[in-house]
Write a sequence for this structure.
């Protein structure tokens, strides 16, 4: 029911744009969902240039991880890797698929939807993700693995599941059914080694990469390069966990200047602090705080300067650069099998994003830059927010970005053609692939970037 309501909402949202482009909205939404159900074939890794200033040295560490991945799977061809032509600290790793010639085995394993999505990005299957398995399964046996795409199956299923499911590849059992269900069930452990996945898309384990490299989506790597922090900047990352962008900014700043990294989730703060420590960064200061209350006119500027870098709130016009990678619907994450999104939650997100944007403007110095990003394809979380900010805060102007790897923003919400050209979108774009400046901007998760400057 939630999916039906949400799809109807998407059609209503995109219909004016589709009419403008002479496209059938039903076909556009269908193609969009089909593309979101597949993983990007290109993975990206950021080399820690503080640890390995010469990127080619980082290549060797990543290559070791890739070779191990291929040895454990029936990879008929080697996985190619190259340095991104516009992002000198980014490695691109080319996967392949779908491999439609795989044999289907009689014995089937059913896994949770989220587990299946991870498998399409290169992961193996672990015990907690299994929903169903045959009783007579032995260790070492070959099985075909399916994901419960409808998110409807009960745990412990014995028979083959006849509900909505997606084939994700073949593997070998490393445990038995008794390890997953019943009184002797294990809480963890490798359950199925995916020897023949539908997509060859290396899972770049952060533990294997240590402090040399960091797996990150390509658009999120573009963010830090577009914001261009300097070694003397005071930077605020308003929603920083788990720390990919904060640690990237810190690396570009050569571990100099100051970055304040805030996040309202206590649980996610652990990941943020772990990544900052893992990269040996001393210019990133992490605080558990909701950024909708990051600025206070009552904060004394002299006192804040004296105690900086201390915890929030901070006085107005305190930061040279502000990054707002806003909490969003995630309607750009790939792969995604299901769109059972609560419509009320989805439509309430823009209000929270506006609260964060208002704080960002207050905290930004005149002449400073604000970067707004989401991992959503929804125009209401993207172009609509750009129009609102420009209309509400006359001191803010939209400025050009560099590097430009994505395609322009959508002509919606009365944004001019010139303004759309200053925005970057990434990922599936059934309505305007012809506007893409690079095929790499399409084979990524869905993402959006806008860059603003505060007038003096």
């Amino acid at each position: 029911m939630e999916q039906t309501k949400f799809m109807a909402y998407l059609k209503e949202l995109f219909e004016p744009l589709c009419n403008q482009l002479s496209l059938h909205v039903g076909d556009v939404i269908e193609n969009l969902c089909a593309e979101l159900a597949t993983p990007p074939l290109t993975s990206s890794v950021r080399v820690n240039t503080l640890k390995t200033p010469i990127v080619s040295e980082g290549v060797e560490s990543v290559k070791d991880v890739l070779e191990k991945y291929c040895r454990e799977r029936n990879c008929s061809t080697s996985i190619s890797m190259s340095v991104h032509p516009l992002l000198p600290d980014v490695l691109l790793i080319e996967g392949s698929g779908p491999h439609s010639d795989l044999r289907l085995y009689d014995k089937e394993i059913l896994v949770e939807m989220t587990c299946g999505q991870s498998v399409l990005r290169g992961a193996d299957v672990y015990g907690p993700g299994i929903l169903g398995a045959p009783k007579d399964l032995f260790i070492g046996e070959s099985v075909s693995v399916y994901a419960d795409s409808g998110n409807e199956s009960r745990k412990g299923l014995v028979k083959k599941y006849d509900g909505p499911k997606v084939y994700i590849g073949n593997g070998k059992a490393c445990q038995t059914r008794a390890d997953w269900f019943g009184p002797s069930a294990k809480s963890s452990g490798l359950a199925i080694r995916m020897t023949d996945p539908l997509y060859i898309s290396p899972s770049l384990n952060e533990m294997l990469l240590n402090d040399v490299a960091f797996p990150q989506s390509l658009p999120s790597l573009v963010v830090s390069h577009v914001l261009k922090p300097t070694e003397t900047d005071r930077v605020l990352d308003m929603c920083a966990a788990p720390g990919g962008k904060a640690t990237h900014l810190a690396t570009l700043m050569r571990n100099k200047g100051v970055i304040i990294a805030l996040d309202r989730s206590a649980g996610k703060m652990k990941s943020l602090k772990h990544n900052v420590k893992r990269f040996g960064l001393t210019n990133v200061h992490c605080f558990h705080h909701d950024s909708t209350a990051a600025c206070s006119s009552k904060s004394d500027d002299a006192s804040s300067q004296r105690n900086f870098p201390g915890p929030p709130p901070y006085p107005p016009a305190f930061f040279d650069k502000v990054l707002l990678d806003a909490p969003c619907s995630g309607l750009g994450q790939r792969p995604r099998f299901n769109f059972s999104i609560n419509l009320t939650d989805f439509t309430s997100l823009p209000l929270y994003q506006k609260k964060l944007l208002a704080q960002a403007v207050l905290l930004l110095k005149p002449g400073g830059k604000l970067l707004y990003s989401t991992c959503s394809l929804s125009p209401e979380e993207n172009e609509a927010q750009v129009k609102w900010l420009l209309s509400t805060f006359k001191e803010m102007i939209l400025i050009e970005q560099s590097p430009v790897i994505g395609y322009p923003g959508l002509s919606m919400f009365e944004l001019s053609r010139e303004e759309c050209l200053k925005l970057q979108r990434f990922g599936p774009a059934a309505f305007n692939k012809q506007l893409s400046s690079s095929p790499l901007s399409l084979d990524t998760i869905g993402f959006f970037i806008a860059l603003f400057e505060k007038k003096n």
